[in-house]
Amino acid sequence: MEKFRIGKYEEVDVLGYGTWLIGGNSSPDYSRDEYYVKVLTTAFELGYRLIDTAEYYGGGHTEELVGKALKKFNREEFFIISKVWPTHLHYDDVLKAAENSLRRLELKHVDLYLIHWPNPNVPIEETVSALERLVEEGKVRYIGVSNFSVQQLKEAIEATRKYDIVANEVKYSVWDRRVEDELLPFAEQNNVRIIAYTPLERGKGVKGTILDEMAKKYGKTVNQIALNYLISMKTIPIPKAEKREHMIENLGAVGWRIGEEDLNMIKRSL
Ligand SMILES: NC(=O)c1ccc[n+]([C@@H]2O[C@H](COP(=O)([O-])OP(=O)(O)OC[C@H]3O[C@@H](n4cnc5c(N)ncnc54)[C@H](OP(=O)(O)O)[C@@H]3O)[C@@H](O)[C@H]2O)c1
Fold it and tell me: Closest by alpha carbon to 70, among 24, 98, 114, 108?
């Protein structure tokens, strides 16, 4: 898999795998564990190694399923992302939330730990300070944020003392390019990698003439063009897919690039 730099030293896959709705929505669904572990196992067998989860997903059960599926694989090959929910952003709550995620994932550390959403009622310094402690303790390798605006990201960066904010996970797709004006350039200048969630607009099959044209030109599917666009913009899309054929199709977005002129044409047309 092609790699992108994250933080100063880490190289990670340019395409990841999302886990929202695997094992429930905001509360656990224990009724299909075998099926979900199989789904995750298939994704790992196909080569997905950057895995996005959160304490919120399935009310914690998604992390349990990820942990279960990971057991048959070499953990060191994986880059596991989890997130702390905005009601847990006071210092002690962050530490507790991370412990709980590690217990559910059955891991000694997560690779990247994100603040899932900003919470204006908790000083960002307090949360960041707890995140930094988790790095000190080896429970988290890198720290970051999610759904942060430019201003909020700036404040998070300013709140760090020792460790950098290495990522901001935000909604971004070829059909929803709002982050391109300000957030993308700001993130690039500050060495913050953008992770693109809902990169396929939840598989709604949104099509556009220009994307169909590009799909034909490159011999790819519209979804592969859509994901490759995000990779070409130096961001990491994390599509979620339960179906094996979707997982395979999405992997086909890697290993080639849309040409500069075509990228510009897509930007002009959508
Ligand atoms: N940080 C945040 O606040 C936040 C918010 C939302 C999402 N996320 C993360 O981002 C991940 C991805 O976002 P998302 O799940 O919202 O949306 P998404 O990845 O854009 O869409 C997932 C949906 O698209 C379908 N799909 C996947 N590949 C496809 C393909 N090649 N062709 C047709 N349909 C396809 C999937 O179907 P099947 O499952 O049936 O295969 C699923 O229904 C989440 O799982 C989560 O990890 C983070």
Answer: 108
Name the residue of 42, 57, 200 to mutate for ligand 1: max ligand atoms within 8 A of Cβ: 200
Confidence band of 8 (pLDDT split at 50, 70, 90) = confident
CATH number of 3-209+227-256: 3.20.20.100
From the candidates 57, 163, 197, 229, give the one annotated as an active-site residue: 57
Residue pLDDT, tens place only, 10-57: 999 999 999 999 999 999 999 999 999 999 999 999 999 999 999 999
Can you tell me whether residue 11 is helix, strand or coil?
Answer: strand
Is pTM beyond 0.90? Reply is yes
Neighbouring CB atoms inside 10 A of 261's CB total: 8
Give the DSSP letter of residue 176. B
Helix orientation angle between 244-251 and 222-232, rounded to the nearest 10 degrees: 50
Tokens at 29, concatenated = 């669904």
Number of Cβ within 10 Å of residue 20's Cβ equals 20
Determine the average pLDDT of the residues in 205-212.
77
Pairwise CA distance, residues 65 & 87, whole Å: 23
Does residue 57 carry a catalytic annotation? yes
DSSP string across 18-41: E-TBTTBSSSB-GGGHHHHHHHHH
Segments making up each domain of the chain, as ranges: 3-209+227-256
Q: Kindly report the protein residue whose alpha carbon is nearest to atom 14 of ligand 1.
A: 198
The amino acid occupying position 38 is: K
